[in-house]
Amino acid sequence: MKTKLKGEVLLGAAFLMATSAVGPGFLTQTTVFTQSLGASFGFVILVSVIIDVGVQLNIWRVIAVAQQRAPEIANAVLPGLGVFISILIVTGGLAFNIGNVAGAGLGLQVLTGISPELGAVVSAGAAIGIFMVKEAGKAMDRLAQLLGLLMILLILYVVFTAKPPLQEAVVKTLLPDKVEVITIITLVGGTVGGYITFAGGHRLLDAGVKGSQALPQVITSAISGIAVASFIRILLFLASLGVVAQGLVIDAANPPASVFALAAGQIGYKLFGIVMFAAAITSVVGSAYTSVSFIKFFHPAIPQHENKVIIGFILVSTLIFISVGKPVMLLILAGALNGFILPITLGIILVAAYRSSVVGNYRHPTWLTIFGVAVVLIMAWMSGHVFWSQLPRLFSG
């Protein structure tokens, strides 16, 4: 692979992972948590970034060395395990994609005044168009890069208008007044949970970036993806902190839109529409592509007609949103499922890292293994605690 082409693929994979993570839920989470924790939310972001890097390095490395997708690796660890995690990933990906389509519709409503349902249809059409071109992979990479950069520039403008207390943000990031562990778990799950963890790794595999010799490039791409998503998170945090520090009241009905409007007036509100659309449409593409990559081994016809299956995935997500509306219950349950998926999939990858039948003579770094095991145990405990504590609320009444 030519150096220039490889560079584009690495950057594309990084932005695909980052923009898959930066969806409607990402925007809302960051705003709400900043409102509740203030400048101390910076510490939560810092911890989550460290965990994110450890998770991605473990998973992307093993995928590259094994030269197989996650479900194929899981089947090599234990026959049938790949089917199990594929069902989890696709179910969660479909549920989240309904929210992504809804978010894209909301973004277009802010920009044009059309209904969210019509906006969702238009957005779905745009996403489907990516997979109708001959070189869909390149088109997907370019879309993720362009819209990712656009989001950064627009949010950066809002940060300047919000004028956040930067010194306080730095101090509280290192010495927080309070820490809520659940917010760390939520951020980790939202950034590298479910299908998101595998978006970039599978993209590199499809593009031919694989094998032990490609590990330096794989590591660079993984860290770049986390860096992009984290930078966007930090910018949103600073914009929200600027609004909170001024004593302005954020509208609970639509927190991120409220922050943009309070910081930059009507222009800010329109910028929110662009950011929401960009965040949602890239997440629609990333979710559909990665979810389908998990079922390629189900039948030989799927990889032969991959783009058509991806288009079908987007269409189903859109039809469910239009017919049901905002699936609040589905999204809550999907969030709980996402918390379970990360420790399960990461645990499988860690076991595979020590199976010579999967990785050959490759030796996985001990520090990454220790890091990974710690994440598995913490995420499993926290997600289990949250899930069982929420069950009575979900099904009451």
From TrEMBL:
Gene Ontology molecular function terms on file: cadmium ion transmembrane transporter activity; manganese ion transmembrane transporter activity
Transmembrane helix among keywords: yes
A Pfam family hit: Nramp
Protein topology in the membrane: Multi-pass membrane protein
Protein location: Membrane
TM helices/strands, residue ranges: 37-55, 76-98, 110-131, 143-162, 182-201, 222-249, 269-295, 307-324, 330-354, 366-388
One GO CC term, this protein: plasma membrane
Keyword annotations from UniProtKB, A to Z: Membrane, Transmembrane, Transmembrane helix
Gene Ontology biological process terms in this record: iron ion transmembrane transport
Keyword Transmembrane: yes
Protein name: Putative membrane protein
Species annotation: Adhaeribacter pallidiroseus
Lineage: Bacteria, Pseudomonadati, Bacteroidota, Cytophagia, Cytophagales
